[in-house]
Amino acid sequence: MKKQFASVWLAASFAALAAPVMAAENCGRVSIAEMNWASAGVAAHVDKIILESGYGCEVELVTGDTMPTFTSMNEKGEPDMAPELWVNAVKVALEAAVAEGRLILAAPLLAEGGEEGWWVPRYIVDAHPEITTVSAALARPDLFPAPEDPGRGAVHNCPSGWNCQITTENLYRALEADAKGFDLVDTGSAAGLDGAIANAYERKAGWLGYYWAPTAILGKYEMVKLDFGVPLDKAHFDTCTSQPDCPDPKVTAYPVSEVFTVVTRAFAEKAGVAMEYVQTRKWSNATVNQVLAWMETNQGTNEDGARHFLETYPELWRDWVPADVAQKVKAAL
Predict the structure, then answer these.
(1) Which residues form the ABC-type glycine betaine transport system substrate-binding domain (predicted)?
(2) Where are the alpha helices (DSSP H) in 161-215?
(3) Through-space distance between the first and last CA atoms of the chain, rounded to whole angstroms
């Protein structure tokens, strides 16, 4: 289903581009949404640097978030670009906007999409190569001792108040983890969850629980996402796994979140020279994890992270642009 949606959107986007537009030779003024989470903020600054130094655009960054940014782009045609839009939250409205030519779907910025799952440290898998699935991990509560009761194992939950707290609890029930000797441990907050992973790594202790990507913690500590052993049951996930009153949860994989760059038709018209760039550039979650980890260690801003990326990964971003543009960007760093 994910591929079908993406194919429909891309086809509609290309059709919109094929329609007669007066694409300017020069880029002109461009507004870009700097979303309020780190990976999207870095992407916005990468785009700003490349569009300004490589294509001669005049770029303004504006504060953004998923719903208000999409609504403004769809209804008012501004800002011109959302570099990292998690489209599952606006899928129906986005399909309509693309089909009607108001918005254009560009590159899938996160090559693998946004990931959720249950993870363990790499050193656990290295020492116990049979632990590649959630079921295999749940067969070994001794490897993942609970902080309050080392005689039982622990599954660390998502931060309180987040929807993933509900999905983790329902999957814990579906897997009958309690009967297998595991407690569901409340981490309280994102900081608490990160601290639990960091503490486990420092002691080379076992750890099992929910996490997501891309994030700084996965760039700092090498973790392995476990297989649930079954494919995604999207209908069940939407109607039961993700709901607080799920009466009979079943085991299912997590859905992958589609993450695209979205631009307005006006951007394609006034900054047509840069359209190939925004239709090409994408990066892996592993790359983003590393950049975010560098930012956390060095207390870097989104702009610092963008410059670190451009200076550290030239072999990646140079494939996004023509050689002459790459030279201009390099000279500006």
Answers:
(1) 29-311
(2) 163-174, 190-203
(3) 41
Q: Render pLDDT for 280-303 as a digit per residue (tens, 0 to 9).
A: 999 999 999 999 999 999 999 999
Residue position matching structure tokens 């907050």:
189
Angle (CA) 251-256-258 rounded to 5° is 155
Fold of 115-241: D-Maltodextrin-Binding Protein; domain 2 (3.40.190)
Domain 2-112+258-332 has CATH 3.40.50.300: no
Burial tier of 84 (Cβ tally within 10 Å: 0-12, 13-18, 19+) = buried
Mean pLDDT for the chain overall: 91
28: Cβ–Cβ under 8 A, 6 or more apart, which residues? 57, 58, 270, 271
Measure the CA–CA gap between 106 and 219, rounded to whole angstroms. Answer: 26
Residue type, 324: D
Burial (0-12, 13-18, 19+ Cβ within 10 Å), 171: buried
Under DSSP, the state recorded for 29 is E
Q: Tokens 């994408």 label which residue?
A: 282
Distance CA(214)–CA(272), nearest Å, equals 30
* 3-state DSSP percent of the chain in helix, strand and coil, to 5: 50, 20, 30
Residue 186 CB neighbours (<10 A): 15
Task: Name the strand (E) or helix (H) holding 286.
Answer: helix 285-298
Delimit the CATH 3.40.190.100 region(s) of the chain. Answer: 115-241
207 in Cβ contact with 197 (< 8 Å): yes
Amino acid, single-letter form, for residue 321 = V
53: nearest Cα among 282, 274, 301: 274
Q: Give the pLDDT confidence of 139-188 residue by residue, as tens digits.
A: 999 999 999 999 999 999 998 888 899 999 999 999 999 999 999 999 98
Burial (CB count <10 Å: 0-12, 13-18, 19+), residue 244: exposed
Tokens of 186: 């409340």
Amino acid identity, position 139 = A
CATH 3.40.190.10 residue ranges of the chain are 2-112+258-332
For residues 110 and 290, the answer to whether their CB atoms sit within 8 Å is no
